[in-house]
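Handover notes (outgoing to incoming on-call)

Open items:
1. Phosphoserine phosphatase: sequence verified, structure written out, both below. Nothing else pending on this one.
2. Nothing else urgent.
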Amino acid sequence: MNLILQGLSADRPAVDRIARIAGAKHVVALSPLAFRCEGVSADPALKAEVGQAAFEAKLDATFIEPGRKLSDFGLVAMDMDSTLITIECIDEIADMQGLKPQVAEITEAAMRGEIEFQESLKRRVSLLKGLDASALQRVYDERLKLSPGAENMLRAVQAAGLKTLLVSGGFTFFTDRMKQRLALDYTHSNLLEVADGKLTGKVVGGIVDADEKKRTVERVCAELGISTRQAIVMGDGANDLKMMGISGLSVAFRAKPVVRTQADVALNFVGLDGILNLFD
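Phosphoserine phosphatase structure tokens:
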């Protein structure tokens, strides 16, 4: 296996120490901040030891088979809130009502897998009842920011010919704008009901939960004529695990522990473009 070590600062002594723990035969500098340690074992105990040492050194460590290429894949599917973008949109909308702490608490519990997602979304959206719909544009204009490395990552995968899917338990107001802004191919999310210029506290139609996210990845892959194993799927919360589980490469980005432990790749420190260093 190859072991990719990367971080926001270049600490070559730490890289060399972790490479020795892994028993690497060679260490290749991919950039000043990323290194490929070649010829390492994928023994579970060793992987755990390397992962702990890397985390303490503020390095992301990924074990991956040599020779994997971006062109092996046909789709990158991404969660939106706290993955492609830095915020949870519903929490910021709630802040316009003075209810951010209450909504954020439910959001966190749902992302940890402690509350079923559909129920959590209904509870959170109900708290927004009566809010002027213009608050959505304020959140987009004033608070929404792309995650570090998002644009670099998207440029690279699009240049390599991969299609892009944004599938979110958030809202169409934001995914529609992300689609246009970033030239994404597909989006799927929830529609907030608006009446007389105000939010009603309800979602129109079915809710995009973990099962629907998985079905969406399957549906888009079928449309593209590829296997779900040819999809890279990125997420941060428990409701992303089902779609990540059918992918060929699952990426946990700044994710909850329950997600990090089940993903192929965990990016805790570098940006989304950290996935680019994994491929030949």
